[in-house]
Amino acid sequence: FLQAYKRAQYLKQYTNFRKNQGLEIQSKTAQLVDFNAKLNGQRQDKKKIIAENQKERLALEVEKKEQQKLVNSIKKDKNKIIADTRSKQQEAKRI
C-alpha cells in the first residue's frame, strides 16, 4: 500500500512538473513570437529607411548632374563673353 501511495505521489509531482514545463514552454514561445514580431518590424523599418536613403541619393545625383550642366553652361558663356570682349578690344585698338 505504501508503494502505491508513493507511486501516486510521484506521478502527481511528475504531472505537476510536466504541467509547469508546458506552461513555461508556452510562455517562452509567446515571448519569442513577440520578439520575432518586433524584429520583423525593425527589419521593415530599416528596409524603408534604406529605400528612402537610396531614393534621396539618386535625387541628389540628378541634382548634382543638373548643377554640373549649369556650371558648364556658365563656363561656356563666360569664355564666349571673354572672347567677344577681347575681339571688341582689338577692334577698338584698330580704330
Automatic annotation (TrEMBL):
Protein's name in the database: Peptidase M23
Organism: Flavobacterium circumlabens
